[in-house]
Amino acid sequence: MEPVARPCGGRALLFEVTSATEVAAVVAAVRAAGLPEVTELVPAARTVLVEVSAGASLDRVREAAAAADPAAGTSGTGELHTIGVVYDGEDLELVAATAGISADEVVALHSGAEYTVDFCGFAPGFGYLSGLPEPLRQPRLESSRPAVPAGSVGIADVYSCVYPRRSPGGWRLIGRTDTVLFDPAADRPALLTPGDRVRFEVR
Amino acid sequence: MSAFLDVLASGPQALVTDHGRAGNAHLGVPPSGALDRPAFDLGNRLVGNAPGTAGLELLGGGLRVRARGPRLVAVTGAPAPVRVDGRPVGSHHAVRVPDGAVLEIGTPVGGLRVYLAVAGGLDVPAALGSRSTDLLSGLGPEPVADGDALPVGPWTGPVPECGPVPVSLPPATIRLRVRLGPRDDWFTDAGAALAGPVWTVSPTGNRIGVRLDGPAPPRCPDTRGRELPSEAMVTGAVQAPPDGPPVVFLADHPTTGGYPVIGVVDPADLPLLAQATPGSAVRFTVDA
């Protein structure tokens, strides 16, 4: 596979691919190369950013990414987390109406699927979880809320999410959890890391 | 005996800072850390601290602290008046602050960010290996407030020998070297769009980023209305929102963004931008 390598300053490349599977493959390939010069390895929806230390060459990163194999099945093989959710979100009825189903069916669909942490961003510990059932793939709210409470479970586009802390946000909220998504004092501060799997359980 | 700095006045914004927490972008954690890294590093060298020892980053100076326990300190970055118990002592060299004395840092005569290094460093709890306050994500200690007692770590010396240090004011026009990409192809002639205008530092800048007022880089017709899936950004990324002026991202930047990044500023030039007062003129030099 030959991902497009876009320059990103003198110390980083942004590899552009066509699917989440290919994103996971590039991440796996660069990680497997064990390059000590790599300082950041950041997957996103259709890209992977790789940054190296000051003065280091990007050649080995290029080679490693070119060796990525999407057929190797590296996506969603990480740790499985079960997150208990009370499905009483402010937008639950809106989501049901948009999908043309009942609120109970929304809950059954959302809690019946298994998700993969495609990437993190927006805030520390905020994961973009793919695997959302088709009827729940809905646009963001037309205007963002200035403050979404920590633990809110939302959906937008093809992703589900849990807000790790109170923040502005435009995702449609369907429930809430008391699971801590990000604890800066912990050895592993972020519960979710790219490649992990998530199931939501009705509480 | 434990030592403290008792904060009498914190000024416009006083933040604990160090070398930040790079390497966690995949978790959504910004790199954070001192914006004018050379100035911050100089302070630690002057007082004999290890590189990256936590100190303070003061936006616009204005700090007054009382030392509990005698300490060696150094004020660096934007040149500002420094007094110990009312006596001018100068910046950019190590100064002894006796037990109970009041250290006062005034408003910079040029530039924006002043650094205070304390021998032994500020011994506040670390988050992800760093004591830096991250204004975007809220990681690290709260901003310093009046009445805080900042714990100072142990220090055994020796007092380093340092020659005179040159103090410089920011240039009238700041030149930033920029490399095009990763999304320069979203713009018609990205190089000219950046290198042509004289940009003005907007007053809305902060540790997350600095907006540069000027003409919005024109988009290629085929990208109008197109959305870019969120992708990772590096520090120094010049993001160009649709129809808006570009933003240069600094250390507390979001790890991902959904607007195209037209170019990336050389990290070596970012301290100049961090020290640029609102209204300062900026020009880009496009590197091949």
UniProtKB/TrEMBL annotation, chain A:
SMART domains: AHS1 (SM00796). The keyword Hydrolase applies. It holds the Pfam family CT_C_D. Residues 3-192 form the Carboxyltransferase domain. Coiled coil: none annotated. GO terms for molecular function: hydrolase activity. InterPro entries: CT_C_D, Cyclophilin-like_dom_sf, PxpB. Keywords: ATP-binding, Hydrolase, Nucleotide-binding. PANTHER family: 5-OXOPROLINASE SUBUNIT B. This is Allophanate hydrolase subunit 1. It comes from Pseudonocardia nematodicida.
From TrEMBL, chain B:
SMART domains: AHS2. Keywords: ATP-binding, Hydrolase, Nucleotide-binding. Transmembrane segments: none annotated. The keyword Nucleotide-binding applies. The keyword Glycoprotein does not apply. SUPFAM superfamilies: Cyclophilin-like (SSF50891). Residues 26-288 form the Carboxyltransferase domain. InterPro entries: CT_A_B, Cyclophilin-like_dom_sf, PxpC. PANTHER family: 5-OXOPROLINASE SUBUNIT C (PTHR43309:SF3). NCBIfam families: urea_amlyse_rel. This is Biotin-dependent carboxyltransferase family protein. The lineage of its organism: Bacteria, Bacillati, Actinomycetota, Actinomycetes, Pseudonocardiales.
